[in-house]
Write a structure and sequence with these properties.
The protein is an alpha/beta fold. The chain has a single domain, classed as Rossmann fold (3-Layer(aba) Sandwich), CATH 3.40.50.150. Bound molecules: S-adenosylmethionine.
């Protein structure tokens, strides 16, 4: 049974040790859940839609019909919808009940899809359950959790020899990323952009929204702390993947 450990409720504070401004904990649940989250993706300009598609295509190239897959921070099921026909089973976890309810409606009730409310840094799964564990679309920034702990937890839940994939943004994608977040702000989905603080891969809004970026060096350091050897891959000039074959 996948969901055998109880979900431990815990307030996870944003890590500010690297000097970057982290998103307020709970921001997604309170402001960017379900239909509002979907609206962010629906209004993406064409180059961002290309990025989102390239990110999913890259992941689809890594999975097979034998795989049991976990997506951490699955939202309303946008990515699981694309994975579900390509893998044996998929579990999606998120902290937003509203997004999970929408995911349930969107994805249907197939036995091969499990959804649960969990925090990615304290997963209610046994060790070594998944063939592939995913944290995509810069979830590592969106989660507002200790990144080293997030790496450890993803690795713990993945089988030895299995694959853990984290993705963030390529620095080259910055103008397109900013354009996308400006559109989200213009539609009132996130607050007004704080242009004094929005730079160097970080988007900061005046309402507590913030999105950072992880560099290849950041990923390498997190992987090394977790005792793993990562492969860092840029995809489509838009996303940066950290891929770890679990030891
Ligand atoms: C940028 S959205 C990405 C959603 C989905 N992966 C996609 O690409 O469509 C980030 C998601 O992470 C969820 N989230 C935020 N903090 C989380 C946490 N600590 N653990 C798990 N999910 C979290 C949010 O509710 C939101 O649905």
């Amino acid at each position: 049974m996948l969901l055998s450990r109880s979900f431990r409720k815990r307030e996870i504070r944003a890590s500010r040790r690297d000097g970057r401004r982290e998103i307020l904990p709970g921001y997604y649940s309170q402001h960017l859940a379900a239909e509002r989250l979907k609206a962010c993706y629906d209004l993406a300009p064409p180059r961002t839609k290309q990025y989102l598609e390239a990110e999913i295509s890259h992941v689809l190239g890594k999975v097979s019909s034998e795989h049991v897959v976990l997506e951490m921070g699955c939202g309303y099921g946008r990515i699981i919808d694309r994975l579900k026909g390509a893998v044996k089973a998929v579990a999606g976890i998120d902290t937003s009940s509203e997004s999970l309810l929408m995911a349930r409606d969107f994805l249907g009730s197939a036995a091969s899809i499990r959804l649960a409310r969990m925090n990615a840094v304290c997963l209610g799964f046994h060790d070594r359950v998944f063939d592939v564990t995913l944290c995509l679309q810069n979830g590592i920034s969106a989660f507002a959790v200790d990144k080293a702990r997030l790496f450890q937890e993803a690795i713990r839940a993945t089988k030895p020899g299995g694959l853990v994939l984290f993705s963030s943004y390529s620095a080259r994608f910055w103008p397109h990323r900013l354009e996308w977040f400006e559109a989200q702000s213009a539609h009132g989905l996130i607050g007004p952009i704080d242009y004094e603080r929005t730079k160097d891969g970080q988007i900061v809004c005046k309402d507590g929204f913030s999105a950072t970026t992880l560099s290849a060096g950041d990923f390498q350091s997190l992987a090394a702390q977790a005792g793993q050897v990562p492969t860092i891959v840029e995809v489509d000039g838009s996303s940066l993947f950290c891929e770890m074959r679990v030891k």
